[in-house]
Design a protein that fits this description.
Elements (H helix, E strand, L loop, with lengths): L3 E4 L2 E4 L4 E7 L5 E7 L5 E8 L4 E3 L7 E6 L4 E6 L8 E8 L14 E2 L3 E6 L1
Parallel strand pairs: 2-11
Antiparallel strand pairs: 1-3, 3-8, 4-5, 4-9, 5-6, 7-8, 9-10, 9-11
Length: 121
Protein backbone atom coordinates (compact mmCIF):
# COMPACT_ATOMS: atom_id res chain seq x y z
CA UNK A 1 0.00 0.00 0.00
CA UNK A 2 1.16 3.50 -0.77
CA UNK A 3 1.00 6.15 1.95
CA UNK A 4 0.56 9.78 0.97
CA UNK A 5 1.12 12.84 3.16
CA UNK A 6 0.65 16.45 2.02
CA UNK A 7 2.05 19.59 3.57
CA UNK A 8 2.66 23.23 2.74
CA UNK A 9 -0.82 24.68 2.87
CA UNK A 10 -1.58 27.92 4.63
CA UNK A 11 -3.09 31.37 4.34
CA UNK A 12 -1.86 33.89 1.78
CA UNK A 13 -3.07 37.09 0.22
CA UNK A 14 -4.21 37.26 -3.37
CA UNK A 15 -1.24 37.40 -5.71
CA UNK A 16 0.93 35.42 -3.36
CA UNK A 17 2.53 32.01 -3.73
CA UNK A 18 2.62 28.69 -1.93
CA UNK A 19 4.37 25.40 -2.58
CA UNK A 20 2.64 22.21 -1.60
CA UNK A 21 4.57 19.01 -0.98
CA UNK A 22 3.44 15.41 -1.06
CA UNK A 23 5.60 12.60 0.28
CA UNK A 24 4.56 9.14 -0.85
CA UNK A 25 5.84 5.69 -0.08
CA UNK A 26 6.32 2.96 -2.64
CA UNK A 27 6.26 3.36 -6.40
CA UNK A 28 4.01 5.62 -8.43
CA UNK A 29 3.20 5.70 -12.14
CA UNK A 30 0.84 8.67 -12.12
CA UNK A 31 0.63 11.39 -9.50
CA UNK A 32 -1.73 14.34 -9.28
CA UNK A 33 -3.11 17.18 -7.25
CA UNK A 34 -6.82 17.68 -6.77
CA UNK A 35 -8.75 20.24 -4.77
CA UNK A 36 -12.16 20.67 -3.22
CA UNK A 37 -13.47 24.16 -2.56
CA UNK A 38 -16.24 24.79 -0.02
CA UNK A 39 -19.57 23.76 -1.48
CA UNK A 40 -18.03 22.41 -4.68
CA UNK A 41 -17.00 19.07 -6.07
CA UNK A 42 -13.51 17.68 -6.37
CA UNK A 43 -11.48 19.25 -9.16
CA UNK A 44 -8.33 18.06 -10.86
CA UNK A 45 -5.48 20.55 -10.71
CA UNK A 46 -2.36 19.00 -12.25
CA UNK A 47 -0.97 15.56 -13.01
CA UNK A 48 2.49 14.12 -13.56
CA UNK A 49 3.48 10.77 -15.03
CA UNK A 50 6.62 8.91 -13.96
CA UNK A 51 8.36 9.82 -17.21
CA UNK A 52 7.78 13.53 -16.68
CA UNK A 53 4.69 14.07 -18.81
CA UNK A 54 2.42 16.71 -17.26
CA UNK A 55 -1.16 17.84 -17.57
CA UNK A 56 -2.95 20.84 -16.08
CA UNK A 57 -6.51 22.01 -15.69
CA UNK A 58 -7.07 24.97 -17.98
CA UNK A 59 -7.63 27.45 -15.15
CA UNK A 60 -4.27 26.55 -13.59
CA UNK A 61 -2.08 26.74 -16.67
CA UNK A 62 0.58 29.39 -16.35
CA UNK A 63 0.05 29.81 -12.61
CA UNK A 64 0.66 26.34 -11.16
CA UNK A 65 3.61 24.02 -11.78
CA UNK A 66 3.76 20.36 -10.85
CA UNK A 67 7.11 18.68 -10.31
CA UNK A 68 8.73 15.83 -8.44
CA UNK A 69 11.92 14.81 -6.74
CA UNK A 70 12.42 11.12 -7.36
CA UNK A 71 15.20 10.82 -4.79
CA UNK A 72 12.84 12.09 -2.09
CA UNK A 73 9.64 10.44 -3.38
CA UNK A 74 8.10 13.87 -3.20
CA UNK A 75 5.61 15.58 -5.47
CA UNK A 76 5.30 19.36 -5.48
CA UNK A 77 2.77 21.94 -6.59
CA UNK A 78 4.11 25.46 -6.96
CA UNK A 79 1.20 27.88 -6.95
CA UNK A 80 1.76 31.46 -8.04
CA UNK A 81 -0.58 34.42 -8.57
CA UNK A 82 -3.06 32.88 -6.18
CA UNK A 83 -6.66 34.04 -6.29
CA UNK A 84 -9.41 33.85 -3.65
CA UNK A 85 -11.13 31.23 -5.82
CA UNK A 86 -8.10 28.97 -5.33
CA UNK A 87 -9.16 28.56 -1.70
CA UNK A 88 -9.71 24.85 -1.18
CA UNK A 89 -8.47 21.69 0.45
CA UNK A 90 -5.73 20.33 -1.79
CA UNK A 91 -5.17 16.59 -2.09
CA UNK A 92 -2.31 14.55 -3.47
CA UNK A 93 -3.19 11.34 -5.28
CA UNK A 94 -0.92 8.54 -6.43
CA UNK A 95 -1.39 5.34 -8.40
CA UNK A 96 1.03 2.61 -9.39
CA UNK A 97 -1.05 1.19 -12.23
CA UNK A 98 0.04 1.76 -15.81
CA UNK A 99 -2.81 4.03 -16.92
CA UNK A 100 -2.95 7.08 -19.12
CA UNK A 101 -2.25 10.32 -17.31
CA UNK A 102 -5.46 12.09 -16.40
CA UNK A 103 -7.18 14.29 -13.85
CA UNK A 104 -9.97 11.81 -13.26
CA UNK A 105 -10.11 11.09 -9.54
CA UNK A 106 -11.26 7.50 -10.03
CA UNK A 107 -7.94 6.66 -11.68
CA UNK A 108 -6.03 7.30 -8.45
CA UNK A 109 -6.07 4.71 -5.73
CA UNK A 110 -4.08 6.36 -2.92
CA UNK A 111 -4.92 9.71 -1.41
CA UNK A 112 -3.57 11.95 1.31
CA UNK A 113 -5.61 13.70 3.99
CA UNK A 114 -5.32 17.07 2.32
CA UNK A 115 -3.77 20.43 3.12
CA UNK A 116 -5.80 23.62 3.34
CA UNK A 117 -5.03 26.63 1.17
CA UNK A 118 -6.78 29.89 1.95
CA UNK A 119 -6.36 32.95 -0.26
CA UNK A 120 -7.71 36.26 0.99
CA UNK A 121 -8.52 39.27 -1.17
Amino acid sequence: EVHVVESGGGSVQAGGSLRLSCVYSGSAYNMAWFRRAPGKGREGVAGLRHDGRKTYADSMKGRFTISKDNAKNTLYLQMNSLKPEDTAMYYCAVDERVLSLSLVAEKYKYWGQGTQVTVSS
